[in-house]
Design goal:
By secondary structure, the protein is an alpha/beta fold. It folds into 2 domains: about 120 residues, no CATH class; about 180 residues, Rossmann fold. It has 9 helices and 14 strands. The strands form 3 sheets. The chain has a 6-stranded mixed beta sheet, sandwiched between helices. Strands 4-11-1-13 form a 4-stranded antiparallel beta sheet. A 4-stranded antiparallel beta sheet has the order 3-2-12-14, with no helix packed on it. A hairpin with a 2-residue loop joins β2 and β3. α6 runs parallel beside α8. It is globular.
């Protein structure tokens, strides 16, 4: 699926943090008839074009057992592993004031019309935008059938953004996997600095041309965390144990692989709680950096594991990176 844009690509700014960031390049054509295992093998070997990373930067969220953001940690509280080998942390900071650019990716397929899910999704985005700070930017991307369209590109014009949001109507089928694969590249190419994707959907895929496995593999090529708001038809508490994970397998995995988080919501109370957690997480992050002890080969995938050396806390960041010479 080829995503469509409504306006030209903005010029990229040469911010210092963006220069340090691990930039991930376009994916080579895979060709027809490849199964998921072969796709993964090629991604891990030589068919991924990306940047060899000198300083690997890891935007990181730390939460307690109740999912609340944890502040006040220092470098000594973290341990970074690359392909199982411990790494020396050479850069550390905590981010609290830097503006953030958020791309809201809205599912406008026909299934979102049911139970007023589309209206609830609009209200969630509107509430989020109302609470953004000066200097923040926001964009709206909509997807349905085989379309992934910019509704408005990154802007600080709240009124214009909300007008464009309000007129969106549900239609067609849901190509969720295709949207997950296409959107990170659009966002990464459009703006530099801190950025995140907030994907709002009911998680029902009935029209994608690619598998979940391939969509996740493509999404993790770009260093843009994806946070997902997944609308449930009934409360999570009323579902059998494990049903949420099954229903939202794609959303959960893509969030985990990219350093984001899945929020499964039903009704206004759960929605407001999810937005509050999401806003807090976007506002405060730790940034860790290290130089790999072993220089990666071209196209090699390096698995990252980050541990927090305190009990009952968990750290979340991207799952790894690909390298080029």
């Amino acid at each position: 699926m080829k995503p469509r844009r409504r306006t030209g690509r903005p010029a990229l700014t040469a911010a210092l943090l963006a220069c340090l960031w691990a930039a991930i390049g376009p994916l080579s054509a895979e060709g027809p008839g490849l199964d998921d295992a072969e796709i993964e093998r090629r991604l891990r070997l030589h068919h991924t074009e990306s940047s060899r990373v000198r300083l690997v930067l890891l935007p990181t969220a730390v939460t307690d057992r109740r999912g609340r953001i944890v502040r006040g940690l220092d470098e000594s509280d973290f341990t970074v592993f690359e392909d199982g080998a411990p790494q020396e942390i050479r850069f550390f900071s905590s981010e609290t004031t830097e503006p953030v650019s958020i791309a809201f990716v809205l599912d406008v397929s026909g299934s979102m019309r049911q139970l007023d899910k589309l209206q609830h999704a609009k209200e969630a985005i509107r509430y989020f935008v109302d609470n953004l700070r000066q200097g923040d930017q926001f964009a709206l991307i909509a997807f349905a059938d085989d379309q992934v369209d910019w509704i408005t590109e990154f802007t600080g014009d709240r009124d214009r953004f909300l007008r464009r949001l309000d007129v969106q109507q549900g239609f067609g089928q849901t190509a969720l996997n295709d949207a997950i694969a296409a959107t990170p590249r659009l966002v990464d190419d459009s703006i530099s600095g801190r950025k995140a994707i907030v994907l709002v959907t009911d998680g029902i895929d009935n029209a994608s041309t690619m598998s979940m496995y391939r969509a996740v593999a493509l999404a993790r090529q770009v260093n843009v965390p994806i946070f997902t708001l997944g609308f449930l038809s009934v409360s999570a508490e009323a579902l059998p144990r494990g049903a949420v994970e099954t229903n939202f397998q794609v959303l959960d995995r893509v969030a985990n692989e990219t350093g984001g988080r899945l929020f499964a919501v039903h009704g206004p109370v759960e929605l407001k709680e999810a937005i509050a957690f999401l806003d807090a997480e976007l506002r405060f992050q730790y940034m860790l950096g290290y130089y790999p002890r072993r220089i990666p080969e071209q196209g090699e995938f390096r698995q990252i594991r980050l541990e927090v050396d305190r009990r009952r806390l968990s750290a979340r960041t991207r799952s790894g990176y690909y390298a080029n010479p």
